Amino acid sequence: MGKVMIFDHPLIQHKMSIIRDINTGAKEFRELVNEISTLMAYEVTRDLPLEDAEVETPVGKAKTKVIGGKKLGIVPILRAGLGMVDGMLNLIPAAKVGHIGLYRDPETLKPVEYYCKLPSDIEERDLILLDPMLATGGSAVAGIQFLKDRGAKNIKFMCLLASRVGIDLINKDHPDVDIYAAVVDEKLNDHGYIVPGLGDAGDRLFGTK
Ligand code: URA
């Protein structure tokens, strides 16, 4: 089963507390999602392999380490996942960025892909799929499957808020995928929203309602 990593870092917990607040406006919400994503990127990249290197300093030769040949890709699920992209790129600026757009079919309630543009060498990249809210898990599971169908082999899923149901669904359908979340809430309401959650992440990021 995939690993589930919850972030107990005080900075992340503090910032999550502010973005949950109904009185936090879109500008501050966006800035904080950006900052939390950067802090999470630090942990999500912890297992990147290092190679030995040597550099010439002003006073001699230093034996150093550099990140090995791993190629990374980040893939936000539209639209709310977009809010996490810049924060990730702050730490991994060379990562390629793909996009997946999904909507829920009102009849079948199944996620349907309406947009997909991915790096052409996706099968060689370690991918981090981004969606701030892991609620029912339907979009995340579908997004992971779309990536696998196109050849992706190594996928991590990163969100800000996860529900227990969403975590269980990813673990069941994609046990090879590690999950990274800042906070876990236990409940979903009848509309599939996380309770107490933070509301609609896309609306709060982009000021729509
Ligand atoms: N998407 C959101 O934006 N919020 C939720 O609570 C669930 C899904």
Automatic annotation (TrEMBL):
A GO term from the CC aspect: cytoplasm
UniProt catalytic activity: UMP + diphosphate = 5-phospho-alpha-D-ribose 1-diphosphate + uracil
Gene3D superfamilies: 3.40.50.2020
Cofactor note: Binds 1 Mg(2+) ion per subunit. The magnesium is bound as Mg-PRPP.
Key word Glycosyltransferase present: yes
Cofactors named for this entry: Mg(2+)
Cross-referenced InterPro entries: PRTase-like (IPR029057), PRTase_dom (IPR000836), Upp_B (IPR034332), UPRT (IPR005765), UPRTase/APRTase (IPR050054)
Domain (Phosphoribosyltransferase): residue spans on this chain: 7-208
EC number: 2.4.2.9
Annotated GO MF terms: GTP binding; magnesium ion binding; uracil phosphoribosyltransferase activity
Keyword entries, A-Z: Allosteric enzyme, Glycosyltransferase, GTP-binding, Magnesium, Nucleotide-binding, Transferase
Binding site for uracil: I194, G199, D200, A201
Pathway: Pyrimidine metabolism; UMP biosynthesis via salvage pathway; UMP from uracil: step 1/1
Protein's GO biological process: UMP salvage; uracil salvage
Domain of life assignment: Bacteria
UniProt note on regulation of activity: Allosterically activated by GTP.
Binding-site residues for 5-phospho-alpha-D-ribose 1-diphosphate, renumbered to this chain: R79, R104, D131, P132, M133, L134, A135, T136, G137, G138, S139, D200
Role: Catalyzes the conversion of uracil and 5-phospho-alpha-D-ribose 1-diphosphate (PRPP) to UMP and diphosphate.
Family, as annotated: Belongs to the UPRTase family.
Identification of the protein by name: Uracil phosphoribosyltransferase
Organism: Irregularibacter muris
